[in-house]
Write a structure and sequence with these properties.
Blueprint lengths: L1 E5 L4 E7 L6 E8 L1 H5 L6 H17 L10 E7 L3 H18 L3 E5 H7 L12 E6 L4 E6 L5 E6 L5 H11 L6 H9 L24 H14 L8 H23 L6 E5 L6 H11 L5 E4 L10 H12 L18
Parallel strand pairs: 1-4, 4-5, 6-9, 9-10
Antiparallel strand pairs: 1-2, 2-3, 6-7, 7-8
Helix pairs in contact: 2-3, 4-10, 5-6, 5-7, 5-8, 6-8, 7-8, 8-9
5'-O-[(R)-(carboxyoxy)(hydroxy)phosphoryl]adenosine binds next to α5 and α6.
């Protein structure tokens, strides 16, 4: 079995995965959303302190598995430096105490493998859209070690733009679920926000301009005695999604999708899912998704990658395993 740890942002999680069957035997996550909500975003130092409290609590619950562990895996890149270090330090301590190898996992590859949690087989090749709080990118995934990023954001990410819009409206953190909920009662066409990079031939993403346009609309709405944000939320969600589908449509002109996946915390967005499904129809491409509970950060996905890395003996020594806040992907 492999014990895996995730602490790259604001979720402390530990999983136990069976190497042979790839079955998830244990998973526990303690989220810090409530603690960060008052600040409208993740405060790194607070997150680190909460990890230092939560991770040992969860570890206590998996002690019975210790004699059966063959390796310990941990997210080592990308993420917040001060929070990554909490997981990596714990993983190193376990590796020394139990004399087992260490596996450093890339969090973004973890999100890709969230598609295969509890499943014996993987499904490659696939084209994968990763939409999270930190990343917005399209990857061609042939295998664990053959992953090519073909498009990425030039500034903010899809998920982060939801967080910022929610913050502007005073709706706390994380913004994705609240904006999605608010948007249900709104008119998607009420605010004619410009689709980012719509005139650019680049296959890339950008959310800073849209965020600013929404900010101005929120300020305007706040002049009313009883401001109502449903239409702004709906129009924002529509344009944020349209930006993704327009760029993907362009990309599909050269690379036809066969199997397409959406992963990452924001892949839980139902409007995004429905729009991508429409886009894939003419290509007869299959859409695969993670279970809703594994879209956001978790340790089960880190464990699922780790069993593959274990079989390939992709270990990192104690001295070499270090945190890398920025990913190479
Ligand atoms: O993957 P994740 O848990 O953390 C990172 O690796 O960044 O993603 C969290 C992000 C947050 O920005 C959150 O607002 C967004 O995913 N998110 C959503 C939805 N649910 C979560 N964004 C849009 N719609 C949602 N339903
Ligand atoms: Zn993530």
């Amino acid at each position: 079995m492999i014990l895996s740890i995730e602490s790259s942002c604001d979720d402390s999680a530990i999983a136990i995965t069976d190497i042979k069957t790839k079955k998830l035997l244990f998973h526990k996550k303690i989220s810090q959303e409530i603690e960060h909500s008052v600040y409208g975003g993740v405060v790194p130092e607070l997150a680190a302190r909460l990890h230092a409290e939560a991770l040992p609590k969860i570890l206590e619950q998996v002690k019975e598995y210790f004699p059966k562990l063959k390796a310990v895996a941990v997210t080592s890149t990308p993420g917040l430096a001060v929070t990554l270090v909490e997981g990596v330090t714990m993983a190193k301590a376990i590796a020394v105490a139990l004399d087992i190898p260490l596996i450093g996992v890339n969090h973004l590859i973890g999100h890709i493998y969230s598609l295969f949690i509890d499943k014996k087989e993987t499904q490659f090749p696939l084209t994968c859209l990763l939409v999270s709080g930190g990343h917005t990118q399209v990857m061609e995934v042939k295998s664990l070690t053959e992953i090519e990023t073909v498009a990425k954001s030039m500034d903010d990410s899809f998920g982060e733009s939801f967080d910022k819009v929610a913050k502007m409206m005073g709706l706390g953190y994380p913004g994705g679920p609240v904006i999605q909920e608010l948007a249900k009662d709104g008119d998607r066409l009420k605010h004619n926000f410009t689709v980012p990079l719509h005139q650019s031939p680049l296959i890339a993403f950008s959310y800073s301009g849209l965020k600013n346009a929404v900010r101005l609309a929120v300020l305007e709405e706040e002049k009313n005695e009883k401001p109502e944000f449903e239409d702004i939320a709906a129009s924002f969600e529509h344009i944020a999604t349209k930006h993704l589908t327009m760029k993907l449509k362009k990309y599909f002109k050269t690379v036809r999708p066969k199997t397409f996946a959406i992963v990452g915390g924001a892949s839980a967005n139902l409007y995004l899912r429905s729009q991508i499904l429409e886009l894939l129809k003419p290509h007869n491409a299959e859409l695969i998704l993670s279970e809703l509970k594994y879209c956001s950060d978790n340790a089960a996905m880190i464990g699922r990658v780790a069993v593959e890395m274990y079989e390939k003996k992709m270990f990192t020594s104690l001295e070499e395993l270090d945190i890398a806040p920025r990913s190479l992907l």
